[in-house]
Amino acid sequence: MNASESVILTREVNASVVPSGHQVQLLQGETANITQSLGGSYTVVVNGNLFRIEGKDADALGKTTEANTTTAKASTIEEVERQSWEQMKTCYDPEIPVNVVDLGLVYDCHVTEPRVGSFKVEAKMTLTAPGCGMGPMITQDVQNKLLCIEGVDEANVELVWEPAWGREMMTEAARLQLGLM
């Protein structure tokens, strides 16, 4: 979603303050301006403050609740790795309309098969700023999306700070989308 859309909250809803990540409850009847709806979550402005609302609570915004859908069954480590990168591309920082992969936040994705047909995915990622309070939420989003891959029984997402993230880590498409080229 590119254009802002104004809606009235149809019920009380839990939200995370951006960028601190603190949990709050927004009240029924408040006006929310949806500024971003990517990756199954919504970024809204209420009373001049920025919040993230999870897709499972989309009905509070008058939207259809999105369910996590599993991907097609992968039978090889290579297929699981490909699907892992695809899934991570559906995760977004609530302040930036570019997925975490194209932002250059995901440094590594390693897949193993501890038991036949049971896969483990380990990813290493960073944030655009070390003090970002949304870090736990973004890493949990990545982990949840990895666990949606059929056959993945374990997913670990490690937040790392070396090397430090820089704009040069973004894909060319991301820099173009953000007007940095």
H/E element sequence = EEEEEEHEEHEH
CATH topology heading of the largest domain: GMP Synthetase, Chain A, domain 3
Number of domains: 2
CATH top level assignment of the largest domain: Alpha Beta
Strand order of the largest sheet: 1-4-5-6-2-3
General form? globular
Q: How much β-strand is present in the residues?
A: 25-35%
Number of helices: 3
Compute the separation of the termini in Å: 22 Å
Structural class: alpha+beta
Main β-sheet description:
6 strands, antiparallel
**What's the gyration radius in Å?**
17 Å
Fourth-level CATH superfamily of the largest domain: Fe-S cluster assembly (FSCA)
Q: Give the overall pLDDT as a whole number.
A: 91
Extract low-pLDDT stretches: none
CATH architecture name of the largest domain: 2-Layer Sandwich
| Helix residue percentage | 10-25%
